[in-house]
Amino acid sequence: MRKDVIIVGAGLAGSLCALYMLKRGFKVRLYERRADMRKAVLVAGRSINLALSVRGWTALEKVGVDAHVKEISIAMPKRVMHDLEGNLTDQFYGNQDQAIYSVPRGELNVLLMNLAQERGAELFFNQKCFDVDLENPKLIFENTIDGKISNVSCDLIIGADGAFSAIRTKMMKQDRFQYSQYYIEHGYKELLIPANADGSHKIEKNALHIWPRGNFMLIALPNLDGSYTCTLFSPFEGKDSFKELKTPQDITKFFNSVFKDFTPLIPDLVEQFLHNPTASLGIFKCFPWNVKDFCVLIGDSAHATVPFYGQGMNASFEDCRVLDDLIEEHEGDMLRTLNKFSQIRKPNGDGVQDLSLHNFIVMRDKTADPIFLLQKKIEQKFAQLYPEKWLPLYSMVSFSNISYAEAWVIGMEQEKLMSKIMNLPNIKETWDSDVIMQEMLKMC
Ligand SMILES: Cc1cc2nc3c(=O)[nH]c(=O)nc-3n(C[C@H](O)[C@H](O)[C@H](O)COP(=O)(O)OP(=O)(O)OC[C@H]3O[C@@H](n4cnc5c(N)ncnc54)[C@H](O)[C@@H]3O)c2cc1C
To answer: Which atom of ligand 1 sits closest to the CA of residue 312?
Structure first.
């Protein structure tokens, strides 16, 4: 008999997971709280984008949808740093042939939902899950338009309902279930740089742009229509905070003083700033991620993180691939599959969260710090000479499928080693010498 799966949440993780479960021959029903975004996304006039990297691509490829996603993505092989005076510096993320990709979130979600539907999934919109029976796989949904309640049962429940998961909330009522949430002091606001009149990009297209300013920073990712989605990350309160930017005068003065070359790119900057919401950022942890052999959490519902490594979606896509691998490995034994999934993915959820917090410091402070840039040059040189001994942390996370947990541990060991190297006398003069490479080799 075909296994009957209900996926709660038709976001990025839920839609991709549907494709995996369909490929396995399961019956799949996707329930989504929101209206069908396929009717709204293309007229939204505003595109939010995400950075997709190797582990995301690996998961898309395994289920045969990577070529579709390629068509809506823009390669970003480098960061372009914008200093206070508007001077630009390029920093390649890896080797010249490696890139992360800017992908429009709405279009990606629509694409995955369409493919899931074409391949046999049933999609239900305006269906808010508000209860789940953790004794037997049963769910209760409320139609958000007419209030109608439906009770549905299945063999397997996949909770892909995001950071504020209803499935996880119910799991929290179980004995010994672990849960924590931590909001950082920074929030974010999105702004849009429009395209030129001819549809071209106003700044370099194939790059992620960063304006690092210490306690706050601005980033911009290109969209296919010539625009850029920009995100300002700032503290909610205190110096240079959102709280200080209340009036058009405050906003204009702030942007003119710290983002000189950015300000002229958005003619209606003040209107956008006042109109667009300021959102919070948090880390959500829980364990275990499964209940018995019939309920499991994937994506943000299990491990929502702050966005500074651009890995939340990538980690969620990796969940789908790993869950599928485990179903295969355990030949349909769902108890062993889900227990193992929870056990092996939890350290990676923690790993991606640690990495994300760490990269906030790197992006906002270090990318403008000459000592850090020198350190990266030394690492790069060593990695090229001894690739079997050193893969830079950014490459482990973004250009490999090495587990997040392992990347984090290796990355922190590399940091320790590099702090010894950076403390060697005259490192600024000697960094390019064989002596430094030999010193690193001894320490590895
Ligand atoms: C500012 C920002 C930038 C980011 N940038 C990146 C990036 O560059 N790269 C990257 O990899 N990640 C990035 N992320 C993270 C990424 O957006 C998330 O990790 C990813 O969306 C998680 O997917 P998901 O499907 O688990 O959750 P979601 O995308 O949140 O989807 C959950 C779905 O469940 C639905 N739902 C919720 N509750 C219910 C309910 N009770 N009943 C039914 N349906 C429900 C929701 O409507 C939604 O459709 C970023 C996040 C933020 C906030």
So the answer is: 19
